Amino acid sequence: MDLLAHLPALQVVVPMLSAPLIVLLQPRGLAWAGATASALVSFAIAVTLTLAVLDGQTLEYAMGGWPAPFGITLSVDALTALMLLIVTGASAIALLAAKPSIDQQIELERQPLFYSAWMLAMSGLVGIVVAADAFNIFVFMEISSLASYILIAGGPDRRALPAVFKYLMMGTIGATFYLIGVGLIYMMTGTLNMADMEARLGDVTDINPVLVAAGFITIGLALKAAVFPLHVWVPNAYTHAPHMVTVFLAACATKVALYVLIRFDYMIFQAALVDHQMQFALFAMPLAILGILVASAVAMFEGNLKRLLASSSIAQIGYILLGASFVSIAGLSASASHLFNHALAKGGLFLAVACLAYQYRDLRLSQLGGASKRMPWTCAAFVVCGLSLIGVPGTAGFISKWLLINAALQSGPWGWALVAIILVSSLMAVVYIWRIVEALYFQPPTEEGDVVAEAPLQLLIITGLVAILNIYFGLFPQVPLELANSAASLLWEGAQ
Amino acid sequence: MNLLELLGYFNYWVFAIILTVGLYAVINKNNLIKKLIGLSIFQSAVFLMYITMDKVEGGTAPIIQEGVEGQIFSNPLPQVLILTAIVVGVSTLALGLALVVRINECYGTIEENEILDAD
């Protein structure tokens, strides 16, 4: 019981402390084991916290024993728990599978530093999720961003460097915008604690600075979350990063920023600002729809496998934002559930890509012809996760698409148009996944790589496991659904 | 709003101008080092905003001393916050410069258009 009380802090502290310790481990091969152990412990903590908040209560943790308005607090509720599961789960799964792929891409001497950066990125992401203090979110955001710049640039591909430079520019601008917004709110309320902010904003007489703050925070976080049209850093960064880094970051990094955006908007601005619900819907919905359609269309014509999936990620971020922009409890629970299901589907797809990349140097679709003959298990896992991404019944992706369509129908007279958009974009997903399947299964095998065999067993088993999870959570979606529903009702109460 | 009120917001005007100048450099410059300089200017604007808002008229340094009572203090919290933000800015700049060094090693140039042409 006593330990349970400290788990919110340990969730951040365990990966953060393991980061410097991993560098000291000798021999160097142990770095992977250390990082994986730390990620598994974090995942176990996240599961324990989830079980504790499943009944809808909120855990508060006062750092250093200082109570809320003066000290810094961490808080864990259903939405937090869902995000913690995604971040620590993605990190643990990616690390469990990572060793063969990382050994191939990164020299042994640099590996301890690489895993150390991985742990820092993870602890930053986890920190953003549990922090209940607006400025702490900024600091954790920069910890995770700086570490992920290092991770992305750590691979052998030189094109990753300009991609990371662009990410660094846009990421820093996003974080600085967020900082300006927080500063303006602090000016008006004199507090950084998010619960306190919401309470005190009601008494603010001059609302204009708060409006400006809402603009800065929304734009800044949208930059970090890769909301269309602020997504331009994503395709190159995901494409040229080491393959396992793509698995980790694609599954959770942008979603964490989106989580902060939704939380800030619902918990703080909607209650304090007049007509903010409508303003948010009018701002977010067109961007979400454009993102879904444009990014899906780009993915349909993309030739590089990783870049294709990165474009699809931008479209999926659009779905999550679309659910939130309905400003209804059904929309929110669709969003929350899509956060989880998309992490599962896209994580699995990028794991399968890492398997393919282990044997194929060139990931253009034209070079992957007939891969299914040489790597049947990898391709089967890819197809299962691809079906989940499309939203075929029986897979995890179907659950959230179904919820999203239901929420769209309830959202008003325009509901039918929104359903049409979701269906059209799902058809586009069928097209771009089919293009990959066609290359893998129906193209004649390419000349080079006649000896290509399956990926290493470690990589393959984890990929298969994620594929099975995609089906499992499609058939038995109770736990993520329950979390998503209570997260939605929490946000909804916060907005009233 | 009369002239005096406008001048009263002097620091905030400067904040807005520095912010825009920095952003302009980030977007418009082709040289990666110049972009980083722009980013630094952009971030300094925010430092100025935080430092400005903590000033209380007639306020002094927030140090509690024996025998001194009834003093008005400036708010120390934004200064602490911005100290953290400065550290974040320095590390971002350091990482950015390290990236530019690696880009120069790999591509032999730090002009953005030449890098784009190289791939």
Topology:
The complex is a heterodimer of chains A (496) and B (119).
Chain A: H1 2-24, H2 30-53, E1 59-62, E2 73-76, H3 78-105, H4 111-130, H5 134-153, H6 160-189, H7 194-201, H8 208-225, H9 234-240, H10 243-272, H11 276-300, H12 305-325, H13 329-359, H14 371-374, H15 376-390, H16 396-410, H17 415-442, H18 457-475, H19 478-495
Helix pairs in contact in A: 1-2, 1-4, 2-3, 2-4, 3-4, 3-10, 3-13, 3-18, 3-19, 4-5, 4-10, 5-6, 5-10, 6-8, 6-9, 7-10, 8-10, 9-10, 9-12, 10-12, 10-13, 10-19, 11-12, 11-17, 12-13, 12-17, 13-15, 13-16, 13-18, 13-19, 15-17, 15-18, 16-17, 16-18
Chain B: H1 3-8, H2 10-28, H3 32-53, H4 77-107, H5 112-118
Essential attributes:
heterodimer; A: about 500 residues; mainly alpha; 19 helices; 2 strands; about 0% strand; B: about 120 residues; 5 helices
Structural account:
The complex is a heterodimer of chains A (496) and B (119). With 496 residues, chain A is mainly alpha-helical. Helices cover 77% and strands 2% of the residues of chain A. Chain A is built from 19 helices and two strands. Chain A has helices spanning 2-24, 30-53, 78-105, 111-130, 134-153, 160-189, 194-201, 208-225, 234-240, 243-272, 276-300, 305-325, 329-359, 371-374, 376-390, 396-410, 415-442, 457-475, 478-495, and strands at residues 59-62, 73-76. In chain A, strands 1-2 form a two-stranded antiparallel sheet. In chain A, helix 1 (2-24) packs antiparallel against helix 4 and helix 15 runs antiparallel to helix 17 (415-442). Chain A starts with a helix and ends with a helix. In chain B, 71% of the residues lie in helices and 0% in strands. Chain B is built from five helices and no strands. With 119 residues, chain B is an all-alpha fold. The A-B interface holds A 135, 138-139, 142, 146, 149-150, 153, 158-159, 161-162, 164-165, 168-169, 172-173, 175-176, 179-180, 183, 186-187, 192 and B 19, 23, 26, 32, 35, 39, 42-43, 46, 49-50, 53, 78, 81, 84-85, 88, 91-92, 95-96, 99-100, 102-103, 106-107, 112, 115-116, 119.
